[in-house]
Amino acid sequence: LPLDVELASFPHCSLDQIKSAYGEPTSSVVVSGTVSSPNELLLIYENDKTAASKSQSVTSADTAKQNSLASLLTPSCINGTTINIVAHEDDDILFMNPDIYLDIGAGKCVTGVFLTAGDAGHNQDYWLGREKGAESAYAKMAGVDDLWERRSIVMPSGQVATVSNLVEHNGIFLIFLHLPDGNIDGQGFAATSYQSLADLLSGKIAAIQTVDGQQYTKDQIVETLNGIIQKFSATTVRTQSTYVGKEYTDHSDHISTATLANQAFEFSGISSASSLKHYLGYSVRQFEQNVKDDSLSSKMSIFLSYAQHDAAVCANVDSCMTSDTYGNYLKHEYEYPY
Question: How far is the C-alpha of 200 from the C-alpha of 118, rounded, in Å?
Answer without folding.
Answer: 17
